[in-house]
Specification:
Length: 176
């Protein structure tokens, strides 16, 4: 495929390891880390991504101000895990719409190893599309939840509207 003048070639990008443990009750699945996240080696690292603010609102904690390792620890302490539905893909930039040649994860084998898992939430349309296709009818006892993307690129919804939509997760989050 020929590149247009000024167009950068797609780069193969890979996802991070999961942040889960045996107490994970709610698994939040994204699509594939964006460039800022890959550069920093952290889930949802782009400052325009509202993920940490949304989860902080839901947990009643200021996660954005906490160091990354503590953020993950606080999520795990409340039974929340993170992972992505795509293992690797070609993608120039960070937009999900630019993903090509996606290598998908084996979600069914993965979730079978999480004995406390009760629900899976998909962060955005791409995560939902790929994740639901992979899981299919393989997880009938799990609740599957579609969330509006926390990405700053999802400007169709205000932050307040995103918070309202994400509050559904409280049902599956362990109390401190």
């Amino acid at each position: 495929m020929a590149l247009r003048p000024g167009q950068m070639p797609a780069q193969r990008k890979s996802a991070f390891p999961p942040s889960v443990d045996e107490t994970t009750q709610l698994l939040i699945l994204g699509s594939l880390p964006g460039d800022a996240s890959i550069k920093q080696g952290e889930y949802y690292a782009h400052r325009g991504n509202a993920f940490w603010a949304l989860m902080g609102d839901i947990l009643g904690e200021d996660l954005r101000a906490a160091p990354y390792a503590l953020r993950l620890k606080r999520l795990r302490a409340r039974g929340v895990g993170l992972w992505d539905v795509i293992e690797s893909a070609d993608r120039p930039g960070s937009l999900d719409s630019a993903i090509r040649g996606a290598e998908l994860r084996d979600l069914n084998s993965f979730i079978a190893r999480l004995p406390a898992l009760r629900a899976i939430a998909f962060n955005g349309k791409a995560a939902s599309m790929h994740g639901r296709r992979q899981i299919g009818a393989g997880a009938p006892a799990l609740t599957l939840i579609d969330l509006p993307s926390s990405s700053g690129a999802n400007a169709m919804l205000s932050r307040e509207m995103k918070v309202d939509a994400w509050r559904v997760l409280r049902k599956w989050i362990a109390q401190p």
